[in-house]
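subagent[fold] <- orchestrator: predict structure for attached chain, return tokens only, no commentary.
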Amino acid sequence: MIRTVAASVLSLSFGVAGLPTAAHTQAKVAVEIEGGNIVLTKDGSRTPLTDQARDSEAVLSPDGQWVYFTRTAEAGKRTDDDEFPDCTALSTPDELRRIRIDGGDDTLLMTGRPGTEPTDALCGFFDKQFSADGGTLYFLSPAWTTSAALHAMTLENTSTRYIIPANAYAVLSWCTSEKLAGAIVAEQHRYFELGGSFDWYWLFDGTGSKEIGPVGEFDSVDDLKTFLNEGGHCTGS
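subagent[fold] -> orchestrator:
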């Protein structure tokens, strides 16, 4: 899979303080990647937050105060190996960073590494998602030929742990049911006993250490979310 710096958008809405509840207007805030830079959009205005032309995979924190993103090698130092998500072949380690929505406090949280095992390799920091309380950041990193690896960072101290193999996933931070609140659903490549393989979504607890059971086969995470929401699973008992 070729590494691309595509437009990444996540929107959050905030009420304007000081107005009566019925008269609140909503300011829609989003982050986008434009030419390898992070751009904040709000009320129709666009404000660049970075200017290195090296940034991608940007997401807003749940409180709307931070943007978490990936920074890759400088253009002049990039090689053909940088176009493929292989943590062992990058010319320069990827960086996991965050910056405030006002452009301040651009902070390095973690530098990627090749790792001695696939579970130790860190790069790309793809598909970032947050726990419901905003205290944990999840992301995917390339690992095996048939699967990426899901990792989690505790933002209070930036400690990172490997969780499970996954090619796609969803942290069910919006679910309120006892069974699904905060759980993880991950697509995993597995093998039948007598030959052949399959790619199903599986339900895990919030730590990823306990497998609860299969959810089924879906074409995308969006289809999975539609199934959970329209089926009432997220709000059921």
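orchestrator: received. Logging for downstream: The chain has one helix and 16 strands. The first strand starts at residue 10 and ends at 15.
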